[in-house]
From TrEMBL:
This is dTDP-4-keto-6-deoxy-D-glucose epimerase. Keywords: Isomerase. The active site is at H63, Y132. InterPro entries: RmlC-like, RmlC-like_jellyroll, RmlC_Cupin_sf.
């Protein structure tokens, strides 16, 4: 497994495993504490695992947590997703930077997203399972959502949106969220 720094988002990493494939399918390590530790992250800091299943065109995001934020490891364990990270940490050298990835069940790559960054994705296949490893308990009172189609972000979502949550549909603009954070 190798770790590569994401240049558009300071402190973000892409972890790429080395699958072993044979006639039965494949096997690969999707989390390695030593590799995580080698880039300065604490492997035991992650306390909660979750999974979502989406169908083609479903869009989830852009989400982040207020307060201390939430760091997470994200992996598409089945299918393919278009994954987006936006740096919303005012003191970051990559503030307002955006990074786009295609994560898939074929590669099993894992993306580390630092606390203070917004995250969203769109399912590219009929079924896409996305796994999350999160560094603190979920508190719905800290949920923050940003409009997926905010023109300031100009995210090139690859497909028409087929479905999204009510919360995502009604999300405020990036400017509104930033203004709320300042007050």
């Amino acid at each position: 497994m190798k770790a590569t720094e994401v240049p558009e988002i300071a402190g973000a990493y892409l972890f790429e495993p080395t699958p072993y494939a044979d006639e039965r399918g494949f096997f690969c390590r999707t989390f390695d504490a030593d590799v995580v530790r080698s880039v300065g992250l604490a492997p035991d800091a992650f306390i909660q695992d979750s999974v979502s299943r989406s169908v083609r065109g479903v869009l989830r995001g852009l989400h982040l947590r207020s307060g201390a934020g939430e760091a997470k490891l994200v992996r598409c364990s089945y299918g393919r997703i278009f994954d987006v990270v936006v740096d919303l940490r005012p003191d970051s050298p990559t503030y307002l930077g955006r990074a786009f990835f295609e994560l898939s069940g074929e590669t099993q790559a894992t993306l580390y997203i630092p606390a203070g960054c917004a995250h969203g994705f769109q399912a590219l296949t009929e079924t896409a399972d996305t796994s999350y490893r999160i560094d603190r308990p979920h508190d719905p009172a800290e949920d923050v959502t940003i409009a997926f189609d905010d023109p300031e972000l100009a995210i090139p979502w690859p497909l028409p949106v087929t479905s999204m949550s009510q919360r995502d549909r009604e999300a405020p603009s990036l400017a509104e969220v930033l203004k709320q954070r300042e007050s």
